[in-house]
Design goal:
The chain crosses the membrane at residues 7-29, 61-81. Keywords: Membrane, Transmembrane, Transmembrane helix. The protein is rod-shaped. The chain starts with a helix and ends with a helix. Helix content is 70%, strand content 14%. It is an alpha+beta fold. A hairpin with a 5-residue loop joins strand 1 and strand 2 (43-48). Strands 1-2 form a two-stranded antiparallel sheet. Helix 1 crosses helix 3 (61-86). It has three helices and two strands; from the N terminus they run αββαα. The relative contact order is 0.16. The mean pLDDT is 76. The protein has one domain (2-79).
Amino acid sequence: MKLFKSIIVFIGLWIIATVGLFFAGFYLFPSQYRCTIGKNGATLCLSVPNPELEIFAKTGWIFLFSFLLAFLLFVIIRMLFKSKKTK
């Protein structure tokens, strides 16, 4: 039962880390806007995703980094709870 709880906590941390890194990527690498001016003077701006973020998301690097981040958080949380139990 203890192993099952640990696995559930780790998967939860992995999901949180993945979502956090994905949104942090949008914040750190914002979309680029390309604007064109038409013949009548109207301006059309389109949002173009940043290529660095697309490569990061498409190649699976985000899952590797989130796995490592979740593992690190999991180890830190376990160490904190073990140190509280020994006091």
